[in-house]
C-alpha cells in the first residue's frame, strides 16, 4: 500500500512533466533513445559521469545512514540495505565501457563535470548544513522514477546500435531497480521524513532544484562532447545586451 498516495500522485505528475520538458528542451536529449548513429564520445562520457556520480553519492548515502541511526534505526537498516544493493553498480557501467575501449584508469582519472559536483554538493549540503536527508532521498526517488520510465527505451536503442552484449551492465542496473521496486521502497523512506505541509513543499522545491541540475548536466555534456567546448561556459552579453 502506498503511503501518502495523494502526495505521491502529485510528485509523480511533476516528474512526468520533467521528462516531457527534458525531451523537448534539452539538446541531444533523445540521442541515446532514438539515434541510429550514436555519438560515441557523448555515450562514453555520459557513462563515465554516471560512474563518478555513483561513487560520490555513496559518501552522501553514508551520511544519511548516520543520520537515521540517531533518529530512526529502522530506516537506518533499510537505507543501509538499499545502499549495499547499489554500492558497486559503478562496476556494471565500467564493464560496458570496457567493451567500447574505455579503461578503468581512464574512468577514475576523469575530473567530474561541474554539474556533477554541483549535484553532489547540493545533496551533501542538506546532510552537512541542514542535518536532513530530505534532499538526498528526494533525489533518489527522482532518479528511480525517471530511470525506470526512460532507460528501458534508451537501452533498447543502444542495444540495437552497439549490440545487446555491450549494454549488459546498464541493463542489469535498470532491471535491479525494476525487479526490486526501488521507487516504491524509496517513497516509503521519503514518506517518513514528511510530517508537515512545509516539508511537502520542501520536497517540491528539491524536485525542481534537482531537475535544474540534471538539465545543466546534459547541457554541459552536450557542450563538451558535441560542440567541443572544453568547460562549462555561460555566453557573455553583447554590448547591446549589457
UniProtKB/TrEMBL annotation:
* InterPro entries hit by this protein: Haem_Oase-like_multi-hlx (IPR016084)
Q: Which Gene3D superfamilies does the record match to this protein?
A: Heme oxygenase-like
Protein source organism: Streptomyces ossamyceticus
Q: Please give the SUPFAM superfamilies that the UniProt record associates with this protein.
A: Heme oxygenase-like
What this protein is called in its record is Heme oxygenase-like protein
